[in-house]
Structures are given as C-alpha cells and as structure tokens.
Amino acid sequence: MSTLTLDKVKTIKTLNHIAESGLAVFKKDDYTIDNDSDHPDAIVVRSFNMHEMEIHENVKAIARAGAGVNNIPVDTCTERGIAVFNTPGANANAVKELVITSLMASSRNLFSGVEWVKTLQGEGDQVPNLVEAGKKQLVGSEIKGKKLGVIGLGAVGALVANDALDLDMDVIGFDPFISINTAWELSRNIERAMSMEEVFAEADYITVHVPLTDDTRGMFHAETFKLMKPGVHIFNFSRDGLIHEQDMAEALESERVGKYITDFPNENVLNMKNTVPIPHLGASTKESEENCAIMATRQVKEFLETGNIKNAVNFPDASIPYTGKRRVTVFHYNVPHMVGQITTAISNNNLNIADMINRSRGDYAYTMVDIENEIDEAVVSSLEEEIKRTRDIVTVRVI
Ligand SMILES: NC(=O)c1ccc[n+]([C@@H]2O[C@H](COP(=O)([O-])OP(=O)(O)OC[C@H]3O[C@@H](n4cnc5c(N)ncnc54)[C@H](O)[C@@H]3O)[C@@H](O)[C@H]2O)c1
Ligand SMILES: O=C(O)[C@H](O)COP(=O)(O)O
Residue 204 burial (CB < 10 Å; 0-12/13-18/19+)? Predict the structure, then answer.
C-alpha cells in the first residue's frame, strides 16, 4: 500500500447524498468536504446530471458511487484528463433483490391488487365480501417453470439469472460482451442465446441489465416488441433511455406487452397502461449505499494520493507501489515515443527512475514514473513544464 505526504488539503465535493462511512475515508487533516466549492480536487456523485455543469480545471477525478455513468460527460472528462470512476458490482445485490421481488409481485398482480383493495376504504363490513368477490380479477401466474430472458449478464444480470434458476425458472441470457469473470459466475444451466431475438421469441419475462450508451439507446422498440410473446412482462432496472417510450405505450395499450415494470418513472411512464413505476429504488439499501460510497471514495483517494487507478471507466487500470520520493503521472494519447519523451524530460532534470508503469486504453494511455531523488519544488515545476510541452500530453501531475 502506498504512503505519501499530501502537500495541501484536498477538497471533495459531493453532488448527491453519499453515505457517511464512505466520506469517512477522507481524513480531516488531509481533506475537506465542501459541497459549495467551485474548484474541488474531486467530485463524488450518484445520479446527479452533470452534463450541463461546469467542471473546474482543478477537478482531477469524478467518482460515481454506483454503476451507470450516463449522467457524467465521460468523453469531455477524458479529453480533459479527468479520471471517472464507478463501483462495479457494489450495488448489484440490492438491484437483484428488487428485480426478483418485482418479478414475483407483478406476476401475482400484487401492486394493482393492493392499490385496488385500498379503494374499498369506507365500505365497512362489506370489505371482506368485496375482497372475495373481486379477487378473481387479480388471478396471477406462478414464475416456476416460466422462462426469464436476461439481456446483459454483468454484475446485476448474472445475479438475477442465477437466482431465477433457484426459483425453478428456466433462464435464457444474452450478452455478446460478457466478461470472463462474470462468465465464471454464471450457472451452466443458463441457456446461452446468440441474439436478442432468440431471447425475445422464448421469454415469458424479460429483464434488461445493460448500460445506456449510444449503442443501447432505444434498444426496445415497436419492432422488438413484435418479436416477443404476447403479454410478456418487461423489467427495466437499467435506464429509461433503453426503451422507446411511445412504442412501449402503444405495446402496453394493445397488450402486446402485458406489463412494464420500471425503476425510471417520468410523466410519460405514469400515463402508460399496466405499468409499475418504482421510484429508482434499485440501489437504495443501506448496504448498497455504503458499499458504493466506500469503494468510490477509496478509489478517488488512492488516485489523488498516488495516481494509482482502479475501476476508472475512461483511464486504464494502473497500479504500482509508491516506492520513490515523488511520482510523475502523465495522461497522454496512445501514440509512439511517449514513454521515451517522458523519461527524457526526467533525465534532463537529473532525476533517476525507481519504477514505472505504462498502460493504454483505446486512444489514450497513462504513465507513472517513480523518482528516486528528493526534488525541490523548483525542479518539480520545471519537470512538469517540460513534460507539458511535449506533444500529445493531456495532463501531468507530480505527486
Ligand atoms: N436501478 C438501479 O438502481 C441500478 C443499479 C445499478 C445499475 N443500474 C443500471 O444497470 C446497468 C447494469 O449494471 P451492472 O452493474 O450489471 O453493469 P455491468 O457493467 O456489470 O453489466 C453490464 C453488462 O451489459 C452487457 N452489455 C452491454 N451492451 C450490451 C448489449 N447491447 N446487449 C447485451 N448485453 C450488453 C455488458 O457486456 C455487461 O456484461 C448499469 O449500467 C446501470 O445503468 C441501475
Ligand atoms: O447506476 C446505478 O448505480 C443506479 O442507477 C443507482 O443510482 P443511485 O446511486 O442514484 O441510486
């Protein structure tokens, strides 16, 4: 584990409520939490929409205490050398439990049943008779023996798929980009679909667990609904943008889709027939909020103090023990000669290298070099300036 003396107190700004146990990672002597700061060193966020927000040049990192990063302008952050972290899997169990709860509850018409029975208030002694007479409208289906289609077998999808098998469902899953780690976690009894169409054709219930990106936006639309079994129930605990809302409204109206259970209500959703709107509760458990907050804040602290990177969505993973007296971290384009230019600048300043790492991710790369020598601040500035003058550099930090 790294050790490093901070040269100044760092400022952290939060844009949503972040669990105290996570914020406690930032020790008082080294950090201040200031939610009014317009130039924090790092930002910790949950679902706050950052797309319209001005992000000060002092911001070095943004940590999403959760999974989805569609509320963060990730491409702009990358171009500016701001690392964006998330917390893979930290809230997956919470989401899985709510998906399974909703699967059983909606299949048994529990939500509409409870709503209806409350309308009997005021009927006095007649309530039990009215309940017995009315319950025939609410006959549901058991999930045992039915087929669940899971689109996206990541942290959440894999847990849902495995647990559905334990509930005696048949499960068919589709994920063309599945990670090796998740593939190891999946039960071999889950049927592997080679296309979404295969899932649509076979499933009685479909649950979607993919990120919202330009590739997945609107992936459920009129044509896809036509491929599904009439009366299918669709569960969306991922993002509203995955569903073409007008098409969903029409599919519900015609009962092509039997029920739409979503964690992302909006005005359109509230006007749709046979919809169960849930107020984005997927990750809202004490356990999940703490897991996410602790993971997010630890990752940011490590990055601010040592430059080490774990679970960034736009920087490569890169970690080495902090062995030297100072560390030079450089985020740059993934082009030839970068390491040579950085190490030349270091030797031009008469400094010796103790250790180094270079990792790339797509068009960008990240290099960290530990310096063996004690360096005074004048040399730090000269070194920083010299590296910044090099072509294809995005950001330089000497820490
Ligand atoms: N409701 C909530 O509170 C809540 C909580 C956590 C996550 N989420 C949402 O759920 C999403 C999934 O969360 P996760 O933790 O499982 O993320 P994850 O990154 O672990 O899994 C996402 C999976 O989707 C797969 N995928 C990507 N594009 C696909 C496509 N076109 N077809 C099929 N599979 C595809 C990926 O390969 C990956 O395995 C998040 O991005 C977030 O938007 C919501
Ligand atoms: O992507 C996520 O992690 C979830 O949507 C949770 O969002 P929240 O942190 O705002 O509850």
Answer: buried
Q: Which atom of ligand 1 is nearest to the CA of 212?
A: 43
C-alpha 68 – ligand 2 centre gap (Å): 7
Q: Which domains does the chain have, with CATH numbers?
A: 1-91+283-315 (3.40.50.720), 92-106+142-277 (3.40.50.720), 318-399 (3.30.70.260)
Of the candidates 95, 64, 88, the residue with the CA atom closest to the CA atom of residue 264:
95
Q: From first to last of the 399 residues of the chain, give the pLDDT tens digit.
A: 333 444 589 999 999 999 999 999 998 899 999 999 999 999 999 999 999 999 999 999 999 999 999 999 999 999 999 999 999 999 999 999 999 999 999 999 999 999 999 999 999 999 999 999 999 999 999 999 999 999 999 999 999 999 999 999 999 999 999 999 999 999 999 999 999 999 999 999 999 999 999 999 999 999 999 999 999 999 999 999 999 999 999 999 999 999 999 999 999 999 999 999 999 999 999 999 999 999 999 999 999 999 999 999 999 999 999 988 999 999 999 999 999 999 999 999 999 999 999 999 999 999 999 999 999 999 999 999 999 999 999 999 999
The pTM is what?
A: 0.95
Taking the centre of ligand 1 as the mean of its atom positions, its distance from the CA of residue 2, in whole angstroms, is: 32
Which residue has the CA at smallest separation from atom 1 of ligand 2? 68
Residue with tokens 């924090």: 40
Question: What would the two tokens of residue 268 be?
Answer: 């359109």
**Measured between alpha carbons, how far is 71 from 207 in angstroms, rounded to an integer?**
22
Count CB atoms within 10 A of the CB of residue 228: 24
How far does the centroid of ligand 1 lie from the alpha carbon of residue 285, in Å? 19
